[in-house]
Amino acid sequence: MPLDLASVEPSNSAILVIDVQNDFVSGSLAVRDAEQIINTINALLTLPFALKVATQDYHPANHISFARNHTGKKEFDKITIFPPAELVAKRTPEDERPLEALEQVLWPVHCVQDTTGVAFVDGLKHEGLEVIRKGCDVGIECYSAFEDPWGLTNTGLKDKLRNKEISNVFVVGIAGDYCVKSTALDAKKHGFRTFVIRDAVKSVSDEGTEWTEMTKAGVEIIDTAEELLTSKIFSQ
Fold first, then answer.
1. Which residues of 178-192 are buried (b: 16+ CB within 10 A; e: fewer)?
2. Catalytic amino acids?
3. What are the Isochorismatase-like domain coordinates in residue numbering (predicted)?
4. What does the pLDDT read at residue 123?
5. CA dist., res. 19 & res. 57, Å (int)
6. What is the pLDDT, as a whole number, of residue 95?
7. Are 60 and 114 in contact (CB under 8 A)?
8. Is 10-60+109-234 a domain of CATH 2.40.50.90?
9. Residue 124, C-beta contacts closer than 8 angstroms, at least 6 positions apart
């Protein structure tokens, strides 16, 4: 199916580079072959997007998602987590999002604040990109670049996009079945036309269910970065 870029212009488009960090490429939670997408992402970053954003997982050492912080639990076990009471108490009356319990995978320690693992990988041309940090709260996991699953905290990304009058977002990075997917679904939910570029994404699992889930939600999948790189719309 031909790529439909109707209404897409550089002036109303942003690229979101998700979590291309040392720990996800060669460190404690490395995604297989993640280094293979770096050159593709760099090529996309040469296009004249109105806004270019890079996210960082940015956890405190005692983060709830780390297996070592749960007695008797092993890496990749699952637990049930609940919204932190101190943040629930700050909710505004108009916020009606349900505060249900969520399943949480327990991960190896990764992307801890002020460590080498949290840094962008060597080779990623991240100079000049706006940086959004997520997962900073001890008691909340935040896969999405926009907000946590309960909507109790947000990163400011939605406002940043709105202030730049962005209508279209292009999502790339790591991992397709976690942070890329969550970011794309939230972008679509917030009213942005959302694209994910398949050959600029690496996932943890080979199952591929994330692509079906995103497509069902209305996210548009671009098979290759070359489709954008050769598009007249983005020619400079």
1. bbbbbbbbbbbeeeb
2. 19, 134, 179
3. 13-226
4. 95
5. 6
6. 67
7. no
8. no
9. 17, 20, 38, 41, 42, 54
* Residue whose tokens read 């009471």: 85
Instruction: Return the number of other C-beta atoms located less than 10 Å from residue 48's C-beta.
Output: 13
- Burial degree of 86 (CB within 10 A; 0-12, 13-18, 19+): exposed
91-123 burial string, b = 16+ CB within 10 Å, else e? eeeeeeeeeeeeebebbebbbbbebebbbbbee
Give the orientation angle of helix 209-216 with respect to helix 181-189, to 10 degrees. Answer: 0
Beta bridge pairs of residue 196 = 171, 221
Task: Determine the pLDDT at residue 102.
Answer: 86
Can you give the pLDDT at residue 153?
Answer: 85
What confidence score (pLDDT) does residue 176 get?
A: 95
Q: pTM for the full model?
A: 0.93
**193-202/220-222 β-pairing:** parallel
Residue where the block lists tokens 């072959």: 33
Instruction: Return the amino acid letter for 76.
Output: F
pLDDT means over runs of 10, the chain (236 residues): 79 98 97 97 97 98 96 94 76 69 92 97 95 94 93 92 97 97 97 97 94 97 92 76
